Batch of 2 targets.
Target 1
Amino acid sequence: MTHDLVLYTHPMSRGRIARWMLEEVGRPYRTELLGYGDAMKAADYRAVNPMGKVPAIRHGDTVVTETAAICAYLADAFPEAGLAPPSGSFDRGPYYRWLFFAAGPVEAAVLNTALGVAVPPERKGMVGYGSMAEVLDTLEGAVAGRRYLVGDAFSAADLYVGAHLSWGMGFGLLERRPAFEAYVAHLDARPAARRAAAIDDALIEAAGGAKPAA
């Protein structure tokens, strides 16, 4: 597909993950910046995403919302970038597993922690992540001593998991375990990750804001 790519984002949002993914893809894209509040809730943007939130991407006539879905879509739309195991390969299973583990249990556990929501031990079976300790131990087992989650190649799963670990540790919502820090440091050193962060940090500074925690 050769249609134009458009990123709808705010530099202090999950749109940072989508931008990193676009930089890894390496195709030209246009950025539509949206402020929180009226701009995101305006009728013209709700025609893109009825939820009135970012990020979203448009690829020709195709609109994709939800950050994990954006990453998965871009990996498949541009297979030449090598950001997902080949369709039909056995590596596709763990690739999906860790991509959506971060989108589900990890994000839910971190946000509940940030909001001060405590799940009673007798009710943990009702939440998808069980407990924060179980989430962290599972993640540590996946990344300890490894550069990548699946085989020997970077994928959209690494990007998405790494972004959540970096954000969570930066804001004190996830333990700074040595395995997490080593894994994130390797991913943060990628040229595409640095380009994406520099773009969004410059947008924040131009607006007079503070950079996200590192």
Target 2
Amino acid sequence: MKSEISTQPFTQLLSATPRGARLARLLTVQQLHEWGWPPSCAVSESTALLVAELAANAVTHGRVQGRGFRLTLTVEVSDTLRIEVTDPRGDRPPLAGRSASPIDERGRGMLLVEALATRWGTEPWPPSGKVVWAEIALPCPVITTSAPATQPSTSTAPAPEVAH
């Protein structure tokens, strides 16, 4: 792992589509790799699962026609990684602790978030949206620097080509 991690958050606006949710997961793994956590490590794998679930929820439950969702990754106080997914539907908070029956096709996502995250929650995002956030503990303290490891993008990323 790199000894210096940027204090600059990684932020990306994505389309509220299944492709946008997939891209959020892929960009997360890439950013964590640039910060020093390889794709096969526990931090990267857990974070990718959390982002996949939060992004899928934003696409499924937080979608408003013509509006996307925002992914933000931040290393806080050198031992915590904070994941934020912002969507325009503040009237639909995630349901915590919901148990699904064995035949239910949905309803297990937030159980996964509860299992992987150290803490998670929601906050309003004025005027009408919400931020669903999750934090995971980093395995060892890292030294942060104000110089960005990479320049975070705030524009919509082009969708990757899909091989057929």
